[in-house]
Amino acid sequence: MDFAHIGKRSGTGDDPSAAAQLKFLLQSAQAWRQLDQAVKQHLPANLHPHIRTACIDPDGSLVLLAANSTAAARLKMLAPALLPQLQAYGGLIRAVRVKTVPKPSAPPKQNTLKLSPAALEALADGADRLQHHPGLAAALRRLVGKYQK
């Protein structure tokens, strides 16, 4: 694997053209994907969704982000065995550091259900007919009330 592009800030070099910069960016992205795959290849499969490869510090420390404290603790235990395997891919990595960065929670779901006036009328009519099931009739009336404008 070629990790020559990892950690570089700019790929302009002698050729400041947009094409050269785009090529450098694509090569960097590919190198990061390969490094992330290499890291996950040496970890148990149940850790994969909880681990992300973040960066390589100037001192050569590979920073791995764990989504929770359990994954971080497990990764910290595995890091000493992981380091020699990652060093085999190139001389860039001298240490492995683990940081816990929780994944952002999903935004609350918004109810976008819209009921037509005909549907609301049918539900209200159904509630009136369900006198022998007062709980169900009350639930239908609440539903109608919620969606009436």
Quick summary of this structure?
It comes from Neisseria bacilliformis ATCC BAA-1200. With 149 residues, the protein is of the alpha+beta class.
Word description of this protein:
This protein has 149 residues and is α+β, with helices and mostly antiparallel strands. The chain folds into 2 domains: 17-100, DnaA, N-terminal domain (GMP Synthetase, Chain A, domain 3); 117-148, no CATH class. 47% of the residues lie in helices and 12% in strands. It has 4 helices and 3 strands. The protein has a 3-stranded mixed beta sheet with strand order 1-2-3, covered by helices on one side. The model has no long low-confidence stretch (mean pLDDT 85).
How many strand segments? 3
The low-confidence parts are none
CATH class category name of the largest domain: Alpha Beta
Strand order within the widest beta sheet: 1-2-3
What's the CATH topology label of the largest domain?
A: GMP Synthetase, Chain A, domain 3
Note the main sheet. Answer: 3 strands, mixed
Protein name: DUF721 domain-containing protein
Pfam families: DciA (PF05258)
InterPro entries: DciA-like
Organism: Neisseria bacilliformis ATCC BAA-1200
